[in-house]
């Protein structure tokens, strides 16, 4: 089962003006679709970031992997590691520090997922079986709420409308819960004064008395502000996500906050685990196979976390169905995923490169696909359309801050802001 060919296709799809600590989402989100084909004619899919610097590394890696056996993951990882010479950071900075190890893991991930897809197809078994076997039939996701503008400036309003205050956030939650059946709620904060974001959480608590709630300001608060918010929301939050920046300051908040702290920013690669564990900085790790080196490494991460009493949930950027399938197989096979995972799926509003049918939401959870491999098929017409959109949209890297500054020139993304 040797790799005969790898096709790397960047795509673009519409993204609403979602606000976050870094600025605002641009009108187009970028992803890269990886298709690996073996000498036996089996093919597998992977999905990763679409930023140009990353895309170029994925393209270079693809050439270096031709001829390797799809089971030879150690060799595939070494070849990728040898090629990824420099550190590639995100312009938005929402997923923490970039390191060499994390840069390698990001490039390796889509190839690993595609190889697992192939290995599952060869055996006639779902990827979750290759990861240890599913311990749940369906994977719960949270309603991922964002403050947002009604539409991109100069364009018509989108169907989600504006959400710029607690009432708008509650209305957005009602819409997503009605359409998807979500049973937990995450609010992306770090946009307004902390007191307004506290009010939004309290309004959500009143409107949805039994939904677990989380708040994630992407580390824009000081230690003192984080503690004020934590105290104001005592008994209301399931966890508080990345209130402040860095392992040390997170540990200072964790020592006095009444709820666990979660992160997808201060622990983003294996080398961050020892100091975070030593200092008691986190209670929940939001893993993400796109930067933790794929699915098998994410399972290893989960085992390490279990050893040290850290529970797991899952982080999400804008993504398509190949990633949703991979996330669902992974979360199905990891026993200590204790809370609903994040997904941006509702914001993609039906745009996808996978044929409809394999993935659906039932009561806020995605039933684990039972077909061989990832259980999803590429929709080649949709892929061609989205690739054309990539070529014509004018964006080559995600940059929420520069886009925000077009409309608000004094916007700053410095930390801490409050
Ligand atoms: O901290 C997080 O959960 C994220 O970084 C998730 C996404 O990146 C989200 O904040 C976004 O895309 O604006
Ligand atoms: Mg986060």
Characterize the structure shown.
Belongs to the mandelate racemase/muconate lactonizing enzyme family. GlucD subfamily. It holds the Pfam family MR_MLE_C. Keywords: Lyase, Magnesium, Metal-binding. It comes from Nonomuraea dietziae. The N and C termini lie far apart (54 Å). The model has no long low-confidence stretch (mean pLDDT 97). With 418 residues, the chain is an alpha/beta fold. The strands form four sheets. It has a seven-stranded parallel β-sheet, covered by helices on one side. The protein has a three-stranded antiparallel β-sheet with strand order 1-4-5. Helix 5 crosses helix 6. It folds into two domains: 135 residues, Enolase-like, N-terminal domain (Enolase-like, domain 1, 2-Layer Sandwich); 239 residues, TIM Barrel, CATH 3.20.20.120. The chain is built from 14 helices and 14 strands. It binds 2,3-dihydroxy-5-OXO-hexanedioate and magnesium ion. The site of 2,3-dihydroxy-5-OXO-hexanedioate (GLR) has 11 residues, from loops.
């Amino acid at each position: 089962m040797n790799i005969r060919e790898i096709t790397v296709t960047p795509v673009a799809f519409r993204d609403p003006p979602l606000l976050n600590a870094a600025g605002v989402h641009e009108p187009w989100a970028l992803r890269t679709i990886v298709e690996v084909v073996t000498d036996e004619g089996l093919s597998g899919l992977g999905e990763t970031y679409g930023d140009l610097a990353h895309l170029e590394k994925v393209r270079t890696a693809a050439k270096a992997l031709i001829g390797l056996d799809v089971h030879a993951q150690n060799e595939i990882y070494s070849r990728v590691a040898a090629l990824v010479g420099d550190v590639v950071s995100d312009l938005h900075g929402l997923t923490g520090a970039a390191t060499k190890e994390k840069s390698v893991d990001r490039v390796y991930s889509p190839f690993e997922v595609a190889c697992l897809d192939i290995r599952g197809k060869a055996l006639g078994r779902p990827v979750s079986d290759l990861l240890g076997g599913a311990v749940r039939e369906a994977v719960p996701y949270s309603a991922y709420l964002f403050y947002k503008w009604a539409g991109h400036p100069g364009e018509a309003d989108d169907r989600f409308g504006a959400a710029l205050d607690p009432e708008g956030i509650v209305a957005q939650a009602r819409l997503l819960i009605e359409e998807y059946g979500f049973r937990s709620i995450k609010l992306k904060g770090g946009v307004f004064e902390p007191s307004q974001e506290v009010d939004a959480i309290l309004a959500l608590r009143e409107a949805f008395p039994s939904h677990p709630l989380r708040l994630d300001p992407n580390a824009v608060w000081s230690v003192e502000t984080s503690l004020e918010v934590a105290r104001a929301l005592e008994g209301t939050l399931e966890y508080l996500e990345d209130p402040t920046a860095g392992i040390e300051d997170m540990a200072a908040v964790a020592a006095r906050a009444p709820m666990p702290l979660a992160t997808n920013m201060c622990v983003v690669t294996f080398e961050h685990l020892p100091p975070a564990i030593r200092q008691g900085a986190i209670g929940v790790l939001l893993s993400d196979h796109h930067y933790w080196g794929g699915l098998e490494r994410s399972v290893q991460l989960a085992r390490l976390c279990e050893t040290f009493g850290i529970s797991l949930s899952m982080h999400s950027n804008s993504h398509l169905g190949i990633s949703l399938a991979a996330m669902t197989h992974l979360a199905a096979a990891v026993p200590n995923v204790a809370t609903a995972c994040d997904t941006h799926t509702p914001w993609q509003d039906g745009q996808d490169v996978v044929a409809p049918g394999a993935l659906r939401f039932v009561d806020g959870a995605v039933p684990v696909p039972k077909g061989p491999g990832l259980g999803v098929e590429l929709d080649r017409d949709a892929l061609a359309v989205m690739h054309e959109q990539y070529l014509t949209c004018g964006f080559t890297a995600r940059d929420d801050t520069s886009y925000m500054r077009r409309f608000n020139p004094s916007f700053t993304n410095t930390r801490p802001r409050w």
